[in-house]
Amino acid sequence: MIPDEAYMQRCLQLAALGLGKVQPNPMVGAVIVHNNSIIGEGFHQQYGQSHAEVNAIQSVNDKSKLAESTIYVSLEPCSHYGKTPPCADLLIQWKIPRVVVGTTDPHQKVNGQGISKLKNAGVQVKVGVLEDECRFLNRRFFAYHQKKRPYIILKWAQSSDGFMDIDRTNGHREYWITNKEMRILSHKWRSEEQAILVGYNTYCNDHPQLTTREYPGNNPQRYIMVNKGIPYSISKDYNILPNQLDEVIDTLYHHQIQSVIIEGGRKTLDLFLQADLWDEARVLIGNQKLGQGGQAPAIPALPDKETAINHNLLRYYYHV
Known about the structure:
By secondary structure, this protein is α/β, with parallel strands linked by helices. The protein is 29% helix and 23% strand. The protein has helices at residues 4-15, 52-58, 87-93, 113-120, 131-137, 139-147, 180-191, 200-206, 245-254, 266-274, 305-310; strands at 29-34, 37-43, 70-75, 98-103, 124-127, 151-158, 163-165, 195-199, 221-226, 239-242, 259-262, 280-285, 294-295, 312-317. The strands form three sheets. The protein has a seven-stranded parallel β-sheet with strand order 10-9-8-11-6-12-14, sandwiched between helices. The chain starts with a helix and ends with a strand.
């Protein structure tokens, strides 16, 4: 017999296909198994559209088998009416006798209620299969509902000798630390998050578009941090935020932004690093040397194992 973990792994593969398309909803995958064979699969494909459980059930050719099947779901089935009806009710309606759940849903309108509804209807429920992996996949969703703030990704490129910006004393000139392939990767990352943020100096110096123009994905909402009391001129296509972290986080949270990628500059990145207000760091390192210019930020030493676990340090190296 194939173990529950194998089917849950397939749920995770399916769920990940919704990255960048379902926010502020979580990514969810579902697999229906009958007599040790998969008879249906589905995932949440687009915000406002059918959930994973609905798509999986619709994919089953012989619906009579559902009453003898197990459905695997990477996140607890919802129990409330939103843009779609409760998935827990749907599973009960189709008399699916066994439900295996990766992890509970932290949303206050669910948070165990979907599981309770299933159990009260006589459904056998198993919870916690590949729980860490399921939570990590939806780390943005969990951060937003548990920490009451967006999941914060710091991203920058630096030269091999530790500089992220050229010496601008002789005026602005275009330069690249990495290359086109890394720019495409950066634009892919942008498409996966709901918002992108830079400081006002970066906006003025580099005139960044902050779009996904080199990758076929959704553009994130664009935010610029500006010091209070300083005159500024910014295109209406950008959202303005004060240079105060508490206000930044509060505004993004109330805008229902579950994830934001911070692309600089140095002062803006340091604000988040020094306040220990970040979840992930992505550093692209080119192999050329700049010799002088703006120093790249330094990721602070994490004081203990628990703190280290709470930060996902992803370091990407590129060599020309």
